[in-house]
Write a structure and sequence with these properties.
Oligomer: single chain
Number of domains: 3
CATH architecture of the largest domain: Alpha-Beta Complex
Shape: elongated
Radius of gyration: 31 Å
CATH topology of the largest domain: Topoisomerase I, Chain A, domain 3
CATH class of the largest domain: Alpha Beta
Low-confidence stretches: 1-7
Helix content: 40-55%
Number of strands: 7
Number of helices: 12
Length: about 325
């Protein structure tokens, strides 16, 4: 029998539950759709995925009854999986990251959600999770990490989990009255990395003075002197390596006078927010070397570069290329 003949053999629209549920079929489709009205007056549409009118009626009434029951409990009219909530949460986090100039905790939350929460919980319902489910997840996570997480790591997981719950509540996927089990935030105490001694620092500086000239490939000839200047500026200012240092532009550097003494000060923005750093006087030599290797500003004086607030990054090749990081070169050093 053709689609037209099947469609003509069954009613195209039905009103159920005193008109609160409407069952209908679109043209050129054998499957019934339904729309139902909740207590707040809102209408919601969903496919029954059934071609038989008897089966479609049963599905439509079940959907309506479940939606009304969930509404009375303060839940969303339709259930959402952890993966669905995570997709919304991650999209919001990425928007926040795109609008920020420095690294934020949002990167860590994204990693926790995408690498651990979604693979483990996936199609599970957030409001149906028990304390046992969460404890079993923590055991699985520790096996995946192959170590006992430190307290700082667990804090990231706890914050990411809370972010997921906040997203679900904010979008009406669950009620704030629904108790969702929390993650454990107590772990092993982190160990402080050992500091460089003054002798080790001097040995490193002496070695880099020669090492920077020994690059054979073009990229080595560019990145070795750049890494040397990068490390020296870290030592002379106390700035954090990574995002805080790599995002510094010439416009973030200026002369600062205090008690008739002129200093270089640098504005950085990273893990703890924005702050001014006062550099040791030897930092001027580092800045001069950086400037003289950058073709577009080498003809200027350092004072002119700082006063005109050049917007380029300070750690870049002579052709203007800005390396993403120095991790590989630093390991070889």
């Amino acid at each position: 029998m053709s689609v037209a003949a099947l469609a003509a053999a069954q009613p195209s629209i039905l009103y159920l539950r005193d008109g609160e549920v409407v069952l209908y079929r679109r043209s050129r489709s054998l499957l019934y759709q339904c729309r139902y009205r909740l207590a707040d007056g809102t209408w919601h549409r969903v496919s029954t995925r059934k071609a038989s009118v008897e089966h479609a009626i049963a599905v439509a009434c079940d959907l309506y009854d479940e939606a009304r029951y969930r509404q009375r409990l303060g839940l969303a009219h339709r259930t959402h999986t952890v993966a669905q909530i995570a997709a919304v949460c991650c999209a919001e986090l990425r928007t926040k990251i795109d609008g920020s100039t420095g690294k934020t905790a949002s990167h860590d939350y994204l990693s926790c959600i995408e690498r651990y929460f979604v693979p483990y919980f996936g199609e599970r319902r957030l409001e149906q999770l028990t304390h046992t489910d969460v404890r079993e997840f923590e055991l699985w996570r520790d096996r995946q990490m192959r170590r006992k997480p430190a307290t700082s790591t667990l804090n990231n997981f706890t914050s990411a989990w809370n972010k997921l719950i906040e997203t679900a509540v904010a979008h009406g996927y669950i009620s704030e009255r629904v108790p969702v089990p929390k993650l454990t935030a107590r772990g092993e105490k982190g160990r402080t990395r050992p500091a460089f001694t003054e002798q080790e620092v001097q040995q490193l500086l002496t070695f880099m003075d020669v090492w920077q000239t020994q690059g054979r490939m073009d990229v080595e000839k560019e990145i070795r002197p750049l890494l040397r200047d990068y490390i020296e500026l870290l030592l002379l200012t106390g700035m954090r390596h990574g995002t805080e240092a790599m995002n510094i532009c010439w416009q973030h550097i200026e002369w600062h006078t205090h008690k008739d003494v002129r200093y270089i000060r640098i504005w950085v923005d990273g893990k703890t927010g924005g702050r001014w750093l006062i550099a040791k006087h030897r930092a001027v030599d580092v800045l001069l070397r950086l400037q003289q290797r950058q073709v577009d500003i080498k003809h200027l004086t350092l004072d002119a570069v700082l006063s005109t607030r050049v917007t380029h990054k300070i750690f870049r090749f002579s052709n203007g290329y800005h390396p993403h990081s120095f991790v590989g070169t630093c390991r070889r050093l």
